[in-house]
Amino acid sequence: MSQTGSIIIKTPEEIELMRQAGRILASIIKELKRSLKSGITTKDIDVKAEALIAGHKVLPAFKGYRGFPGCTCVSVNQEVVHGIPGKRILKDGDIISIDVGIISDGYYSDTAVTVGLGSISDELKKLLTVAQTSLQKGIEQAVVDNHLSDISSAIQTYVESHDFSVVRDFVGHGIGKALHEDPEIPNFGLPHMGPVLKEGMVFAIEPMVNLGTWQTKTLEDGWTVVTKDGKPSAHFEHTVAITKKGPEILTE
Ligand code: MG
Predict the structure, then answer these.
(1) Which one, of 202, 206, 205, lies nearest residue 241 by Cα?
(2) Which pLDDT tens digit goes with each residue over 122-147?
């Protein structure tokens, strides 16, 4: 590895290890999505995740991170991110964000998805579609010689064109031998600013999109972030490598 500014450039060998990590993580989150049904608890999702992670002989990235108790963050409805898996029972009409990370051969991988359970309102369907598409819009800008904020700006512009808002208090990040490396990747901002993107950078891009205000607050458990106005929020994340041929989504 080498560094440009404080952003670590990965070698092709490192990217290959991160590709393997991403492939495993993609299969784990696919299984977790499949296991969602009304009546289970958010803890049930985490128990399943822990078993899947162990089954792949990799390590959970979140468990014990600054004391976080779960392998997953499970955030329901107005919860934005960092929901602690627990006794909450999922029901029809909920939207559930699952965020999960692993360490494979020393390299981190990080992904998140939001799923509607049973029949959800048209408004919520639109929120999920716009949030997921905003991630794609950001990823499309993760190309050599773009500036970092081209990613940020593409996400914000797309989300706000649909009259939703992007969370400011939490951001994407570089990823590699650590879960959170430089740079921070906001989901808002003007284009053409910040570091120039280079081949070998790997980013976790993760827009959090709110139906109402962008403002958030953290609950007394010290982790769970909710929207300030109590309206729903969606979160999608991929780990993405910047290559000569364009952005490569590692967690797909
Ligand atoms: Mg992340």
Answers:
(1) 202
(2) 999 999 999 999 999 999 999 999 99
Kindly give the distance from the C-alpha atom of residue 81 to the centroid of ligand 1, in angstroms, as a whole number. Answer: 10
Cα separations (Å) of 8 from 101, 140, 176? 19, 21, 8
pLDDT digits (tens, 9 = 90+) for 31-88: 999 999 999 999 999 999 999 999 999 999 999 999 999 999 999 999 999 999 999 9
Cα 163 to middle of ligand 1, angstroms: 24
Question: What does the pLDDT look like over 207-242, one tens digit per residue?
Answer: 999 999 999 999 999 999 999 999 999 999 999 999
Distance 206 CA to ligand 1 centre (A): 6
CA dist 68 and 62 (Å) reads 7
Q: How close is the Cα of 142 to the center of ligand 1, in Å? A: 16
For domain 2-249, is the CATH number 3.90.230.10?
Answer: yes
Q: What pLDDT does 124 receive?
A: 98
Q: Ligand 1 centroid vs 152 CA: distance in angstroms?
A: 15
Strand residues in 54-131 grouped as ranges (E): 59-60, 72-76, 79-81, 95-104, 107-116
Residue boundaries of the structural domains of the chain: 2-249
The residues whose Cβ lies within 5 A of ligand 1, an ion, are 110, 204
Q: How far is the CA of 121 from the centre of ligand 1 (A)?
A: 27
